[in-house]
Amino acid sequence: MGITFRKETFRDDFTFRNSPEHIRRFPFPFHEDSYMYAVNIEPHVVGPKGSVLENLIDVDEHYVAEMQDRALVLAEDPLRCQSLPHMTLAGWDLLELLMEQQALGYPEHFTLTRDGDRWRWINRPLGIDDTFTFGDTSTLPYGPMEYITRQSQGDFCILDQRDGNLWMDAGMVTTQADWSLDFDIGMNFFEWHAPVPLAHEKGIFIRALKFLTNIQQGKPARRLNWTMTINPRLDTSPENYHKWGPDRSTVTPENVGDKVHLRVELQSFWRLPRSNGIVFPIRCYLIKMDELVTQPKWARRLHRVIRDLPEELATYKGLTRYRPTLVEWLSKLDDGSPTSPGFGPD
Amino acid sequence: MSTGTTKLDVVVSNVVPVNELVTRFHFRRRDGELLPTFSGGAHVVVEMRDGDRTRLNPYSLMGSPLDTREYTISVRRDDVGRGGSLFMHRSVKPGLEMVISYPVNLFSLDLRARKHLMLAGGIGITPFMAQTSQLAGSGGNFELHYTCRTASLGTYADVLQQRYDRRVRLYHDDLDERIELDRLLSSQPLGTHLYVCGPAGMINWVRDRAAALGWPAETVHFEHFAAPQPGAPFDVTLAVTGKTIRVGSQQSLLEAIEAAGVDPPYLCRGGVCGQCETNVVSHDGKFIHNDHWLSEEDHRSGCKIMPCVSRFEGKSLVLER
Q1: Is the ipTM of this complex over 0.95?
Q2: Quick one: which H or E segment has residue A147?
Q3: Which InterPro entries match (chain A) (predicted)?
Q4: What Cα–Cα distance (Å) separates residue B116 from each residue in A111, A282, A297, B126, B147?
């Protein structure tokens, strides 16, 4: 029994929805009724059945629609996918990782067959059946990173490790929360994190870098991050700010439930074997308020988190404009009763 | 996170004497599957169960990263060391089941380099075996300069010359052949990266000359695993776990801590990676620092120690473990 892939859009008429099963598996990011930065990194190991952690690379009902949206973004702006010349080997590493993981987790949808360096890749949802020579870029229609990330949900940053730092030297970034690969390409870990407030004073980035440069092969790690997006728009990039920025002034008490989306990123970190680089998949999950509040615990908790969020964080996440409207709407769903520990719904 | 890396259950598939000092060991997975892919310069930590002692020593992988049916390492016999290499030479035979770590690379190629200039001394040749295989497979530009004591101790010199011909230059100490280092370092094209692996004296010499000749520090790469040195036994108090332990003369401080049932993080066990860095609560005596991780300032401060390779002499030592 495979996944039933939804036909839906992340632009124009915004027909994106989560099925009831997908609402329950949503990676709700708050384990308590308040939120502050922490180095919330843990080993990326397989989690419970029916959760987004059931497989280390998650494929869900939005797969086909997300890949179609990515193709539209790339057609308009090819610089969303970039790989500096020394990163081709890391691209092959990523191709191997994603093919292996998708074929392992979803054999009914993906098949990888290897005969030495002759590989055959079958992607049934997208109607792809390609045979190529591993390591020979001329045998694929795109570079290895672009080829496989056009077939994998989430953004991917490939970081080169050298001089005790990590460098953003390749990536496929079309579902981002207001940052630009074209702007950050070639920057190191401290440079691309410079705009994040509060965390620098806490020394979080120094500790995080130390941890990441020590990530070992076969031992990936993960963390959750979150923000909010108006309308289920995957591509909230600085390049397209003129398209989505004004959406934030359209939130009214009547349309909060439909327009406001919690946007959660499941970020994972993997050592790449041949290049010794790190790949950083940033998988974006969207859920509209109407869907989220079908779980009463999440409704109560989200109300408390958004209400009490420090002003700097609200500004950084771009919530300022509609926060009062959202908090007012959520408050009606919060009777003040306690919430159970942990992330999951009751 | 747990200590070390993921482990691999392997079987010794071959043992090949290479010359009077060096023996090569081949490992395959016990389950018959392929081993993990690795990058040139990576090492594995080999667990040696020698009676009631367990030693864990790092060795560079020297096979081609393109072939993961087996891993190969080469071990130089050290007759005055703590016995790890002697155990490998005497007790490890084909068919023996062993445990090794996943590969870890602390001596990675910088793939931006326009040219890779490699300098090897003695058994320091092993990481370059894998790196040259990797570069040759992708049309990379490299040049290897290899010094050894005598032609018969030039481990793999013949193989390398056969594979790469004029890209390999050999220097024999007994024939008084020396790398003309200043000339070599002064005549490299822009964008060259320098890699050196060999005895500590060679590494220091090359780093000093490269700095003096204006090579940016980011372009000079080196790897030197310090072997834990034997020494006088000493007592240590572990403040966190409330244990008092004795470090034997042939044992490293890290091994003694582990033998007491405490598992500090580690990776390389050669004073390079920084994982086992430990805070000193108090001490009355003298540290014998052998690592390449802590700064000189750290060493002078008496506040930190790398238990994988460093020792202590004196009345008392209390560590935050």
Answers
A1: no
A2: helix A144-149
A3: HODM_asu-like
A4: 38, 34, 58, 16, 17
Domains of chain A, by residue range, sit at 20-331
pLDDT digits (tens, 9 = 90+) for A217-264: 988 999 999 999 999 999 999 999 999 989 989 999 999 999 999 999
Tell me if residue A6 is catalytic.
no
Kindly list the structural domains of chain B, giving each domain's residue range(s) and its CATH number in brackets, ordered by start: 7-105 (2.40.30.10), 115-223 (3.40.50.80), 234-319 (3.10.20.30)
Alpha-carbon distance B172 to B188, whole Å? 23
Residue A291 has pLDDT above 50, yes or no: yes
Q: What is the average pLDDT value for chain B, to the nearest integer?
A: 93
User: What is the DSSP code string of B157-184?
Assistant: HHHHHHHHGGGEEEEEGGGT----HHHH
Select the residue of A96, A214, A275 nearest B111 (Cβ to Cβ). Answer: A275
> Any residues with CB less than 8 A from the CB of B321 and at least 6 apart, and which?
B238, B239, B240, B241, B257, B262, B264, B278
Residue A335 contacts B where some CB pair is shorter than 8 Å: no
* Strand, coil or helix: B119: strand
A125 Cβ neighbours under 8 A, 6+ residues apart = A5, A63, A64, A109
**Coil, helix or strand at residue A160:** strand
Chain B: give the shortest CA distance to residue A322, in Å.
40
User: How far, in Å, CA of B315 to CA of A319, rounded?
Assistant: 61
Compute the distance between CA of residue A340 and CA of residue A301 in angstroms, rounded to an integer.
10
Question: What's B125-152 look like in SS3?
Answer: HHHHHHHHHHHHHCCCCEEEEEEECCHH
Distance CA B269, CA B5 (A): 12
Q: Is B219 on the interface with A (CB under 8 A)?
A: no
Each residue of A14-28: pLDDT tens digit? 999 999 999 999 999
pLDDT at B1 over 50: no
Q: Is A8 on the interface with B (CB under 8 A)?
A: no
